[in-house]
Amino acid sequence: MVQPIVPGDIVMYKPMRIYLAISSGSWTGNPAQKRRPCAVIYLDQRTTIPIVAPLCGAVYINASWQRRYQMVADWWHPVLFANTGVPVPADGAGVQRQPIIITHNPLCTKPSFIPHFKSSYIWAGDSGE
Question: What's the predicted TM-score (pTM) here?
Answer without folding.
Answer: 0.78
